[in-house]
């Protein structure tokens, strides 16, 4: 069984009728990137940089960050690495930033909000990422974007950092793609507008579900309501993928839905291009994808879009995957 799965892991992922998708890995440290190409990851779809900040007793310098990003990029041997800028706040704390306690941390001062407020901190990280881009294909992604002004402000700081490095004569990579995470319903609903300006989307279902159904992703008491097969979540995902396709952009997913084989027929049917997951999930998802027929998934997805509850969607998907 292990060997059979490893066999799937090493091959690119495609459906029976030849629809290829990119399978990528989520990492939290550069060490986790080591050996990933051998485990079937065609890219890093989400590098959660906050762990670099959480492991220190003070803000990591530009050079310390540069070395970490470079290490992850080199481990991927020419494959793309999507680096997410600092996503702190919510459940992730940084004691040395001395942030005030909040009544609703998940709705508060976090991620891009903090970065746009503490521009020096943000510019330092952007410079480190852009410098690291000299060592391989890098894409930058901003977390927790809720509206166009935030995206534009973040993009302007990215351009400022890039311009500064160019003026200093520092070598940097060409064509660094810049995209946003879709993890707030407000951003998903405006995907058609964002799609004109961003290079790509990556759907963070962990937060997108939390904010769509108003269920704290950590709260066991209400976890029965937390489900990425909620029809509202599926509609939001569809909006995003359709908008990116209309504008010639691409959409990935880095929340845990991407690593769930049960979701695979739906994600194929919706046309998701890049699937990023924790590395142990890769082989199983590739196996499931290779058993699917895209035309069939398109028909199934039309039926799924018509259902009314998460339970109905799950039941239909289970029946579909268990069919003889
Ligand atoms: C998400 O919200 O789905 C996501 C991938 O980001 P994180 O889990 O780090 O919040
Ligand atoms: Mg998130």
From TrEMBL:
Alphabetical keyword list: Cytoplasm, Kinase, Magnesium, Metal-binding, Phosphotransferase system, Sugar transport, Transferase, Transport
The PEP-utilising enzyme C-terminal domain, residue ranges: 3-292
Reaction catalyzed: L-histidyl-[protein] + phosphoenolpyruvate = N(pros)-phospho-L-histidyl-[protein] + pyruvate
UniProt GO MF annotations: phosphoenolpyruvate-protein phosphotransferase activity
Enzyme Commission number(s) from the entry: 2.7.3.9
Cell compartment(s), UniProt: Cytoplasm
Listed cofactors: Mg(2+)
Chain segments annotated as transmembrane: none
Family that this chain belongs to: Belongs to the PEP-utilizing enzyme family.
Function: General (non sugar-specific) component of the phosphoenolpyruvate-dependent sugar phosphotransferase system (sugar PTS). This major carbohydrate active-transport system catalyzes the phosphorylation of incoming sugar substrates concomitantly with their translocation across the cell membrane. Enzyme I transfers the phosphoryl group from phosphoenolpyruvate (PEP) to the phosphoryl carrier protein (HPr).
Protein name: Phosphoenolpyruvate-protein phosphotransferase
Gene encoding the protein: ptsP
Residues of the full protein shown: 256 to 579 of 579
């Amino acid at each position: 069984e292990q060997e059979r799965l490893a066999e799937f892991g090493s091959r690119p992922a495609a459906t029976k009728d030849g629809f290829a998708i990119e399978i990528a890995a989520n990492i939290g440290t550069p060490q986790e990137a080591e050996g990933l190409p051998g485990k079937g990851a065609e890219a890093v779809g989400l590098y959660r940089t906050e762990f670099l900040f959480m492991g220190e007793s003070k803000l990591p310098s530009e050079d310390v960050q540069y070395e970490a990003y470079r290490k992850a990029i080199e481990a991927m041997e020419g494959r793309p690495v999507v680096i997410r800028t600092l996503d702190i706040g919510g459940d992730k704390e940084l004691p040395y930033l001395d942030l005030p306690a909040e009544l609703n941390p998940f709705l508060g001062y976090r991620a891009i909000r903090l970065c746009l407020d503490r521009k020096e901190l943000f510019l330092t990280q952007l410079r480190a990422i852009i410098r690291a881009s000299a060592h391989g294909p890098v894409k930058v992604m901003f977390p927790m974007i809720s509206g166009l002004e935030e995206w534009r402000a973040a993009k302007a700081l990215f351009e400022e950092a890039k311009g500064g490095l160019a003026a200093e004569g520092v070598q940097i990579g060409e064509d660094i793609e810049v995209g946003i995470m879709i993890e707030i319903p407000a951003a998903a609903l405006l995907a058609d507008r964002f799609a004109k300006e961003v290079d790509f989307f990556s759907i963070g279902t962990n937060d997108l579900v939390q904010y769509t159904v108003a269920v704290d992703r950590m709260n066991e008491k209400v976890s029965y309501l937390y489900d990425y097969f909620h029809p509202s979540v599926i509609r939001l995902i569809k909006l995003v993928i359709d908008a990116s396709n209309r504008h010639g952009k691409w959409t990935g997913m880095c929340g845990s839905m991407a690593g769930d084989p049960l979701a695979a027929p739906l994600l194929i049917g919706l046309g998701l291009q890049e699937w990023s997951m924790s590395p142990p999930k890769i082989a199983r998802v590739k196996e499931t994808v290779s058993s699917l027929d895209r035309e069939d998934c398109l028909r199934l997805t039309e039926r799924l879009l018509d259902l009314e509850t998460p339970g109905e969607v799950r039941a239909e998907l289970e029946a579909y995957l268990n069919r003889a």
